[in-house]
Recover the amino acids of this structure.
């Protein structure tokens, strides 16, 4: 896998798990090692792929998480530059070790989730904007509005061509010309 320096060659989009390193139960040395390991994974992927779409999940407000630890997590995700994130506040699961720990107030968990979501949205916009001018082979799936919808190898959604074009299940090179919210827009290149 990624941590041993090998990467599956056919995948330009990668999911990285951000291990919750906020707990004071982990030593500071272990926390630092986790951060270094995560950053090294990102660097390795970036060295093998041109702008891979890195994604992750983030739980905010894990028991005993301090404001400083949360800020460190925000710094880490920004350094990683994720293309997409799934963020949600921690919720107590009875019977788990975490349920017995000091809980972060629900309002603080939600507020941290909002702050992390704002950082994720900024990273998403930057990632998509960085795709403009690139050419990707796009697997087209179906019409969407007045254009045809498909996915680039980095799992980014792309709109190109016209809805009446016969593009279903075809792979065509598309030069990305812009963004429309969460979707890249582009022009199909002639073969």
């Amino acid at each position: 896998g990624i941590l041993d320096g090998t990467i599956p060659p056919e995948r330009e989009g990668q999911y990285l798990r951000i291990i919750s390193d906020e707990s004071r139960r982990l030593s500071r040395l272990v926390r630092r090692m986790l951060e270094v390991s995560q950053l090294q994974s990102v660097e390795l992927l970036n060295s093998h792929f041109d702008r891979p779409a890195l994604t992750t999940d983030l739980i905010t407000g894990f028991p005993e998480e301090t404001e400083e630890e949360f800020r460190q997590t925000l710094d880490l995700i920004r350094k990683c530059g994720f293309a997409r994130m799934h963020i949600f506040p921690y919720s107590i699961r009875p019977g788990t070790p975490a349920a017995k720990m000091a809980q972060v107030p629900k309002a603080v968990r939600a507020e941290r989730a909002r702050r992390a979501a704002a950082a994720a949205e900024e990273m998403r916009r930057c990632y998509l904007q960085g795709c403009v001018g690139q050419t990707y082979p796009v697997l087209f799936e179906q019409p969407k509005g007045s254009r045809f919808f498909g996915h680039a190898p980095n799992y980014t959604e792309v709109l190109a061509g016209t809805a009446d074009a016969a593009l279903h299940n075809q792979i065509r090179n598309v030069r990305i010309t812009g963004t429309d919210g969460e979707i890249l827009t582009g022009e199909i290149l002639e073969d």
The longest helix spans residues 106-131. DSSP finds three helices and eight strands in the chain.
